[in-house]
Structure formats: structure tokens, C-alpha cells
Amino acid sequence: MSSIALAKTLQNVQVLPVLTVTNPDQAVQLCQALYKGGINAVEITLRTAAGLESLAVVKRELPEVVVAAGTVCNAEQVAAVKEAGVDFGVSPASTPALLHAINEAELPFIPGVATPSEAMYAAECGFNHLKLFPATAVGGLKLLKSIAAPLPELGFCPTGGLNQDNFLEFLNLPNVYCVGGSWMVNSADLNAGNWQAITDAAQKVTDAIAQQ
Ligand SMILES: O=C[C@H](O)COP(=O)(O)O
Ligand SMILES: CC(=O)C(=O)O
């Protein structure tokens, strides 16, 4: 059930910016700036104290944005982000306890994997949209190309080490449904509230996809 809902949610999502925010107001402005540049989905991580509240506020104030919770690592966080109303969750890695908690909660979810064995285990637990993390460090394009034939039912969102110069190569692989990363949000612009610069960087990403 969750995997069908997830496939539908991801239909028009090609890029998933990984965001670390310091307060909900900043999160809303950041997501708005990205949306103006054509990026319609975000992953707000639980890496800061403001992460959880920011998820709920962005979900409420920007209904046009697909909102994912990132760095969801345990059952408590699964319950909390479900309560916050996110569209789906994302983890950097997968443990049996985490995958069990996600299935119990029926939360649409993209578990992180770094090896074919982890991918097969996640698939056995019912997950076929996976995140390859940290993508370039664990083999990147070569790994994704190598596992396409033996694991044809699995799709990946490579994250970790992607940038403006390499993201299209990842996105164009047949077993990649979207790409993730932090490259399109410059932290100096974020800290300065330079929203136009963030919109411009997002637009560069969406233009690159449109122009290929
Ligand atoms: O912590 C890593 C982020 O999730 C994504 O990696 P990145 O900063 O290399 O894009
Ligand atoms: C690695 C990542 O994007 C996450 O923390 O979920």
C-alpha cells in the first residue's frame, strides 16, 4: 500500500534537495525559494532541533511542495514524522528494526542502502524505491549500472557527492527515479536569507533537466 502511494508521490519528482534548517520560518522561505526555481520536493532532515517542527510547518503552509523527512533512523522518529504529516520518509541506511517500524507505521519510505545485499534485504521487506547513500563514495554510476540487470525491480535515488556537473548522468540511468543532494543550496545564501540566489540555483537545476 505504502509503495503504491510513494510511486504516485514521486511521479513528478526528479530532484530531492537535502535540507538542514535552523527554524521553521527559514524552512518555509527556503522551500518557497526552491519551488520558485522549479523544485517541487524537499527532504528536510532531522539533523537539527528545528527539523521536526519545520516538516509540519512546511507541509501545512506549502501544500504544493512534496515534503519528505530525512535522516529518519529509528522507530521513534518514524512515528514523529508520520505525526508531522510528511509525504514520505528517507533514511541514510537501513536496519531491520527501522524497516520493521516503517512497515508497522505504513509510512511511505525510501530506505538508504549502500550495497546489493542491503538493497535485496530492503526489497524483501517490501521497499522498491531505495536511496543509494553515500552514492559516489560507494561506487556511484558504476554501482548503479552494475546492479540494474540483477535487481531490475529496484529504483534508486542516489544521494551523496552529486553536484551540478554530474547529477544528470545519474538521473539519466534507467534505475534512477530521482537524485538527491545538498549542492543546490549554498549555505552562505541560506544563512544570509538570499532567497533569490537560491531560486536561481534551483532554476539552474530545472533548466539543465529541461534542456537535455
Ligand atoms: O549528508 C549528506 C547529504 O545527505 C547529501 O550529500 P551531499 O551533501 O554530498 O549532497
Ligand atoms: C543521508 C540523508 O540524506 C539522510 O540523512 O536521510
TrEMBL record:
PROSITE patterns: ALDOLASE_KDPG_KHG_1, ALDOLASE_KDPG_KHG_2. Pathway: Carbohydrate acid metabolism; 2-dehydro-3-deoxy-D-gluconate degradation; D-glyceraldehyde 3-phosphate and pyruvate from 2-dehydro-3-deoxy-D-gluconate: step 2/2. Belongs to the KHG/KDPG aldolase family. This is 2-dehydro-3-deoxy-phosphogluconate aldolase. InterPro entries: Aldlse_KDPG_KHG (IPR000887), Aldolase_TIM (IPR013785), KDPG/KHG_AS_1 (IPR031337), KDPG/KHG_AS_2 (IPR031338). It catalyses: 2-dehydro-3-deoxy-6-phospho-D-gluconate = D-glyceraldehyde 3-phosphate + pyruvate. Its EC number is 4.1.2.14. It comes from the Bacteria. It comes from Halioxenophilus aromaticivorans. Homotrimer. One of its GO terms (molecular function) is 2-dehydro-3-deoxy-phosphogluconate aldolase activity. Keywords: Carbohydrate metabolism, Lyase, Schiff base.
